[in-house]
Every structure is written in C-alpha cells, then in structure tokens.
Model the fold of this input.
Amino acid sequence: MTSNYNKTQIIDLTCKLDLPVQYSKLYDQISNNINYKYKEIIETISNENINNVYWWVSSLASKDNNISNLYHYLCCIELLIQIKDTILMKDYEIIVDNHEFKAIISELLGNDIKIKLDRNNNYKKLFKKIRNIVYSIVYSLFLHLAIKLIYPTNKLNNNTELILIDNMMLPNHESYDRYYGEMLDHLSDHQKQNIFYVYTLTGYSILNIFRGLRLLKKNKYQHTFKEKYLTVSDYIFAYLYILKIKYINVGDMYYKNINIKNLAVSDLNSSFSIYSSVTALLNFRLFFRLKLKKYKIATAINWFENQSLDKGWNFGMNKYYSDGNSHAYIGFLTYCSNFLGPYPTYSEQKAEVLPKTFFLPGKEYINNFKLFNSTLNVELAPAFRFSYINNIKIKEGIYNNILVCLDGVALKDDLKVIEIIYNLKSDLRNVNFTIKPHPCINLKLIDNFLDKKYYKSLNFVESDFSDSISNTNILISNGFTSVCIETMLLGIPVIILAKNNGFTYSPFNNTDKMFSVCYTVDEMLASIKSYLERESKMNEINIDSYIQPFNKRLLKRMLTYK
Done:
C-alpha cells in the first residue's frame, strides 16, 4: 500500500499477497480465528465425495495452504469485511488474481470500489497448469524407467509377511535416513529381514534422478519403490485425475452468507499439485498391485503429514489389506492453528484415508493432534529424528551469536530474510549472524541469486543443526519449523519473521518469554536486544514430554512385533 494520501492506495490480495503491517497482523489473526469454519467447509465437500479417491488426493482435500488457496481467499473475505468502512471512505484499489474472488468482492463492497483482475497472472496460471500436467506425466514415466534400470531385481518375498514403511528421499541424503534416523538399527537382522522402506523421491530434477538412485542403492537399509510393481494401467488410472477432478461434486456452501461454491471449484481445478496427486494415486495402486500379486502385508507404516501422498497410501492399505495393521508415524513437532493440513478429521476417518493407529513423538502433542477428531487412536513412539537433542551441550560463556534457519518454502522469501539480516548488521555490530538454509535448498542455489556483499558480512553454513545451535543466543526463522521447537526446548528464544505475503505460522501455546513474531525490522531489533540482555536460559522444559526417548517396547509396538 502506498503511503501518499493523495494517491490511490493498493491492497494486493493475489496469492502473492502484499499487505501493510497493520493488515498483515489482522490477516494472521483472522487465519487463526476461522480455522474451524474452513475445516467445516472442506468437510462438507468431503462428505459428498466420501468414496472418491480422486477427491481425497486433490489439493483442496489436503487442507494444505501451500497448494490450495481457498483458505487464503476466506481470510481475505473476512479481512475485507472487517476493514470495509475504511475502504469505502478512501480511494482504494484491490488487486485480485481470481475471477470468482473478484465477483465476491464486488458483491461485498459494491461496484464503486476499484477491483483489478491481474490477467497477466491468470495467463501465468494457465501456462503453469499446462506445464504441471506435462511435467507430471514425463517425470513419473522417466522415474519409472530409471528405477527399472537401476533396480532390475525384486527383493520383496511374497511367501512372508512384510512390513512396509513409507519414506522420503531427498537429494544429498541418500547415505542416511533423514526421517526415521537409526530406527532399524535397534532391531536384530532377523527382525529386519522382512522390513522395507518404500521410497518416494522428492526434490530430484530429471537430470539427477539416475545419480540419486545409484547413491541410494548403497543405503544400508532394505528398500524398494512403488514403481517396481506398477503397470501401464496404474499410470493411466493416476493420469485420469486430470479429467476426473472436474467432476468432483461440490454443492452450494457459504461463508457468512456469501456463496463460495465457485471459489472452491476454481481452487479444486487450479492444478497446483498435479504431480503430488498423481503420486498419491500411484501409492493407492501400489497396494492394489501387491494384493493382486498375492504379497502379504502385515503392517504398513505411513510417514504421516496428512498430505495427498498419505491419503493415497492409507486408502490403498485399508482397502486392499483391511486385516493388516495400518499405522502412522508422526515425526515432526510443529502444530499451528492456521495450518490445518496435519489435523485428521471425522470425514477422513470415515473415508478410511487415515491409518488406524497414530504414533506421536511426544505426549505434549496428543491434545493438539486431536483438535478436529477426538476419537483417534493415538499411541507414543520414540522421536527417532530428534533423539540427538539430549546430547546437545549448550556452551557456557558470553557470546552474541544468532542462528538464522531458513524455512525453504519459497526461495524468494529466503532471499528476503537474508537481505533483512544484512541490513540489521549496521544496528547490531557486535552480533554474529549465521545463515543456515533448509536441507531442501542447496546453498549453491542461494549463491546464484545473492550479491557477494552478503557473503562477506554473513556466515553461511550447511552443517547439522546440532552443531550450529550449541553456542547460539537466539534463533530466527521465516517459518515455524521443527528447529524452532527444538531450540525452545534447549531454553533458547525464537523469533519468527512474519510474512506479509502469506500466512505466518505460530504454535498454539507460546509465550513472550520464549517466542515472538515480528512484523517489522524495528520489532525484530527490539526482540533481539531484549533477548540478548538475558544472561541465562529462558526456562526449564521437560524435553521428554515433547521428544519421546527411545524405548524398544514402543518401537516393537509400532512395528507390531510381539
């Protein structure tokens, strides 16, 4: 928004979102207040499509703000309702990127308000949709071919009861397991012989798939890929999503007497995540194919984030191996009231796109996890991925070190954070800033977009989090990730740099002693100076209640060993 009173003031409500500070704060507040209403809207559509696998793997069904814009539009509608009088009194222009959204705003504010439809962005979305369709088909077929060539033999034995564990593999992580850590090292060779990680490759370009697969072949854990068991008909089934999604049943639905049906349909057809939906359907068909080939699946463990991939995996397991053990392992630590994707609902349970039993990494998460469904069967399992936290030794002494962990959601946002930190240096000359990219983002990629001056003034590292946090006073991040929880458990305060171009995520229970959200540079400076003045750890937290220590009995329970 421009600050000159005589000029037209702009409110950008496109998916890029560009709001002044006071409206960014209100937008975030709204996003935390209307979460139940948003959940009810998704539940309404879900109940009309309860047995439709194509609905369940869609971006809208995922409730994921990163791949669905409906929640964003609802927050914008509520924002406009609350500031309606201000808009009507002044010369405002509202920019939108959705025709259905424009129609709703016109009805809400009247025709005298200037509403600009960003048509250039519409053309970009159309191009992106076509590109996503082509990419989904080409990439999935190329990956299938590469796996067949690199892994020509089949390791699964259809004469024994198998335990399949859903897992992800990222570039440069092939030599170890980022998600389950050393979980399987606690088992005997006999116990491990029928356990297989089923890997889904993520973050690999077509050019480095072969290299990644060759490196992964040396991984010490037994593993396989769904692509080894799929046929042409399975891929056709998955690609039909591109057509089937247009026939999802969406009836009239309302937000404060505003019919948002067309907005929901538009979001459903946006095709933000065609590849994720296609991969989810291939997960579903994996169990169909294994059942057809008479493989015996005793237990299937899903790395559960309640995404499309998870729904496809669980729907397939529950449908084709209904007598088997369908388990979920939740390995992450963050729950935020304005990011609803991870929270299971009653309709998801009814549709059997959820596992039967959920294993959480700490008892502190149980109540939050059951936010939308109190009947979930929840147990505890060791927090394998974060077991190292008790071994971190915070170094004694006086130091002014701030660790900046980038969330990796969008490269442009990470670059913006680096620029802000660089500009803070002039006011904090005695403070050392260390920038740590997200593991999904290669430091070389960031280097391509940064001026050399940033590298001279800031320290960039790709070391493990445990190495970087030991002599740190404060952690700053542009997204609330697991490292934020880990940092607070160590008694170190966390500052979140709020986003004026999207949702700012913060946990349910936070205090100003340990955690603050800053919307401006001045707010960040004040928080940093306040935290640096404190000489001791902020508080003592029972780490074991957040990060369940290793317990072999719990491990065997999750794997269904006696």
In short: The first strand starts at residue 9 and ends at 12. The chain has 24 helices and 18 strands.
